[in-house]
Amino acid sequence: DVGFEDSVYGMTTTLHLVTDVQCTTCHGSGARPGTSPIVCPNCHGRGVVDDNQGMFSFSSPCPVCSGAGSVIEDPCPTCHGAGTMEAERAIKTRIPAGVRDGQTIRLKGKGAPGLNGGPNGDLLVEVHVESDAHFGRNGSDLTVSVTVPFWQAALGETIGVPTLRGPDVVLRLKP
Length: 175
What we know:
Elements: H1 4-9, E1 11-22, E2 38-39, E3 48-53, E4 56-61, E5 70-71, E6 84-95, E7 104-107, E8 123-126, E9 135-138, E10 141-144, H2 150-155, E11 157-161, E12 169-173
Antiparallel strand pairs: 1-6, 2-5, 3-4, 7-8, 9-10, 11-12
């Protein structure tokens, strides 16, 4: 959630998340330190098993390794073989100027860790912009409504139009 003015001018903020991170004990392998996963004895590392039925052959994920191609005989005591664990993280990010309500910002490499120590995925941040009491948006344009009494519109007058930052803009109304 960002304020209306912050969405117009942009901002730098810190996102506090509780997410999966790579296990610090096994470094994402899922195996106890000093050991490593072995090649699956059922599928011989292919990750799939074939079921031959005459002229047809059906492949399905290996039921022993669940399609991974390897089996962890001695799982990590910290993550129990998952390779990831839950932890709190703080990510500093820049919200760009002009961001709109409902827009998604992609933070490359800041997402969940990859399987078996692979690279991190991307973090997708959905932005919600708070409404403002005076200002609105129409696409990329900033809008504001100013009430002008009839006599000023009829006779012409100089009025002040509010802005987000700084002094009012002077606008001359023609009669």
